[in-house]
Amino acid sequence: MNVENRTLFTKDNLFVLRGIDSESVDLIYLDPPFNSNRNYAAPIGSQAAGAAFKDTWTLSDVDNAWHGEIAEREPPLYQAIRAAELTHGKGMKSYLIMMAVRLLEMKRVLKNTGSIYLHCDPTASHYLKMLVDTVFGKDNFRNEIVWNYEKWTNAARYFQRNHDILLMYSVTDRYTFNKQYGELTERQKQLIQTGYNTGSSSGKKIVRIYDRKNPKVQTKLPIWTEEGRAIYDVSMPKGKALNDVWKIAALNGQAKERLGYPTQKPIALLERIIKASSNEGEVVLDPFCGCATTCVAAERLGRQWVGIDISEKAVELVQMRLEREVGLFGTVIHRTDIPKRSEKLANYRTHKHILYGKQEGNCNGCGTHFPFRNMTVDHIVPKSHGGTDHVDNLQLLCGACNSTKGQSTQAQLISRLKTQGVLL
Ligand SMILES: C[S@@+](CC[C@H](N)C(=O)[O-])C[C@H]1O[C@@H](n2cnc3c(N)ncnc32)[C@H](O)[C@@H]1O
Ligand SMILES: [Zn+2]
């Protein structure tokens, strides 16, 4: 991992994600804006005052270059977005383009054993699921978790809307999963009460014992059966294996952990996710970290963490929370730059040969055939627009087209060539 533990970036996460090494993260939780057509602002006087973010999307919000990029390179992804546009309108399309380019980067930075939890609500969850199916593969879908909370609103003509959706996907089927347990069943409670239980398993008599006074502590006292056999089965009942409906209280006005940050999520929710899908010491990333609930939960559970948020407020809040809730002082590394990937990218000459073959020796602007030495490698999406050195973002242009293009995008080059009459 080329980013240090306990780093918080104040920046658009797309740029930071592009700077993170491939296959270096164990778990991603993201709680992006939901496209709910609302503007969020923290109340004046709350600890989070000054934090605000917009949750409405128009095409101008989107780096327009990406629109064509997705259409050209990820046709299935583009079709999923197109379907959402036809069903729901242009706002949804812009939102999904914003999400799609980021999800592609998230997939790249996750290890093969990693997982991702995309937190969303019913406004966009069905469209987002199509995106994640496309990016991670439908076979890597693991759960659609319903987070059920109580929140009473004036819902006169429909049922109270009391849940969010968490889409859980893995990168491969070798993902980390630590089974989680909830409350004890009635039967298990009874076993702890009575201390032992006799039953029958494959014909043999089995006896389980528990420490009656302190059910958390396992004892190794033998139980003597009527036949005089000592039995040391000391497994404690763990409770019911958790299902995909999670009842966890939302942070209401009275909640102690509440900072007033709009859309702050409960620590309990994040702790459950982190316990289930990562191990101690592993790396948890939250690219839309808000007031850094994920970072605080990860710290409490002994995981490494990295958070990204575009809002300035996040870094202040996370330091304050880490001091107050975990007792860590002055430990957060705050960055506003873009990390540099430490992995080696394939060398330039190799790229040029591959590209020459792919383009069959033709310039990607004017379409004219040129000898190898007259071609230059060009960034399709300029680096100043967030483009990468990845071969997917490279092309060959002739000298004339390269200077016409300058720092603009490929779409602008094509339109200039048309104006100049070079292209029809
Ligand atoms: C729903 S909130 C996350 C709340 C968070 N889970 C918590 O418990 O506090 C969404 C966050 O995404 C941030 N955000 C929106 N667009 C972003 C972007 N392009 N890059 C990074 N952060 C972004 C907003 O500033 C906001 O804090
Ligand atoms: Zn040319």
Please give the structural blueprint.
Elements: E1 7-10, H1 13-18, E2 25-30, E3 38-41, E4 52-55, H2 64-73, H3 75-88, H4 90-109, E5 110-120, H5 125-136, E6 141-148, E7 163-170, H6 186-194, E8 196-201, E9 204-209, E10 223-224, E11 230-231, E12 245-247, H7 267-277, E13 283-286, H8 293-300, E14 304-309, H9 313-326, E15 333-335, H10 348-358, E16 375-379, E17 394-398, H11 399-405, H12 410-419
Parallel strand pairs: 1-14, 1-15, 2-5, 2-13, 6-12, 13-14
Antiparallel strand pairs: 3-4, 5-7, 6-7, 8-9, 10-11, 16-17
The structure holds S-adenosylmethionine (SAM) and zinc ion (ZN).
Residues 12-13, 31-33, 53, 261, 263-265, 288, 290-291, 293, 308-311 line the site of S-adenosylmethionine (SAM).
Describe what you observe in this structure.
The chain is of the alpha/beta class and 424 residues long. It has three domains: 7-178 and 242-335, 3-Layer(aba) Sandwich (Rossmann fold), CATH 3.40.50.150; 186-231, no CATH class; 348-419, Orthogonal Bundle (DNA Binding (I), subunit A). 31% of the residues lie in helices and 21% in strands. The chain contains twelve helices and 17 strands. The protein has a nine-stranded mixed β-sheet, with helices on both faces. Strands 3-4 form a two-stranded antiparallel ribbon. Strands 8-9 form a two-stranded antiparallel sheet. A hairpin with a 2-residue loop joins strand 8 and strand 9. Helix 3 (75-88) packs antiparallel against helix 4 (90-109), helix 3 packs antiparallel against helix 5 (125-136) and helix 4 (90-109) packs parallel to helix 5. The two termini are 48 Å apart. The protein binds S-adenosylmethionine (SAM) and zinc ion. Zinc ion binds at residues 363, 365-366, 368, 397-398, 400-401.
